UniProtKB/TrEMBL annotation:
Domain Type I restriction modification DNA specificity: residue ranges: 4-151
UniProt keyword list: DNA-binding, Endonuclease, Hydrolase, Nuclease, Restriction system
Highest taxon, organism lineage: Bacteria
Annotated family: Belongs to the type-I restriction system S methylase family.
GO molecular function terms noted in the UniProt entry: DNA binding; endonuclease activity
GO biological process: DNA restriction-modification system
Name assigned to this protein: Restriction endonuclease S subunit
SUPFAM superfamilies: DNA methylase specificity domain
Amino acid sequence: MTMMALGQTARFINGAAFKPTDWGNEGLPIIRIQNLTGTGEKFNFTTRQVKAELIVEPGDLLVSWSATLDVYRWAGPRGLLNQHIFKVLPKSEIDPDYLFFALKSALAELSSKTHGSTMKHVVRGDFESTQIRVPPLEEQRRIVDILSRAEGIVRLRCEAQKKTTELIPGIFLDMFGDPATNPKGWPRALLGKLLNSIDSGQSPKCHSRQKLSNEWGVLRLSAISPCDYDEAKHKALPTEISPDLSVEVQAGEVLLSRKNTYELVGASAYVWKTEGKILLPDLIFRLSIGDHERLHPIYLWKLLTIPSKRELLRTLASGSAGSMPNISKQRLRTLEIEVPPLGLQARFAESVEQIRSIQSQQSAATEKAEATFDALMTQVFS
């Protein structure tokens, strides 16, 4: 087995710098980094003529080398390569799939060579000089077969998790209907009438790191942005600041972001568990239920995440041009919600908890599959 620089294994073609004036509604799609990462799947199109080598076909190997460092097998339509992305043309003695895995393995080293304080990128010289192990072609194919099987298991585990996650909103709509039309005719009530209080904390200047076990932390907005609770997303509270114990996050609470971007304002989450010593920031509300005879917290959380109800929440937000939308306590209290019988809400909550248990088992299985894949990658490329 020999060591080769990446630049010796393939030709790396950088994309073109398309300007907004090149964009239109016709022509070929421009493949940008956000189209690779899934953070922005909408394409810009162009009729601009470019070199044939900048045309990307399904199955081509692409490397994003700025802002996001990763390697992709292009699974989209025929398109044109944007700047900050390399199209990879492996040499005849290099199996393309082997190079894909080798590039994945090399990312740690490539990441250590990133430049730029805001827009991270890899210098081409550093990139192409990175050394990888290159066995004979037959051995490459044998390695690809093993790694592809392991990668396939990880992918199947992730797909199963995704399908399980989709069960909860499906069960909600089956049991209660879409709140936009309320087809089952549930009585409605103002949210404020069913709550004891709407509380929020403070956002003092915190450390950027996570807290230590003996410290307190303050939640980041991103802790609930995906409408699920992620306690790991917090900042450590400086030890000289006394924590406000009245806004410590507790298991069983429903949280809601009062201020964020238009897409994320009004995101809510249910606190399934907490390690303790975590405080609310001023941008997250705690919805304390007052009438437990009419409202179950898990039902309330899921109701607030249904797309039609999220859209209603957005209409409650106000803000001047250029500022983030903000939902006031007063306006949030006016939100009308559907109130099915408590017994039905409790049955829904039980179903959600059962699905959560399945998700936990799936997560453990996925982690095991990922660990196996990572171990194989280390064995091959280290």
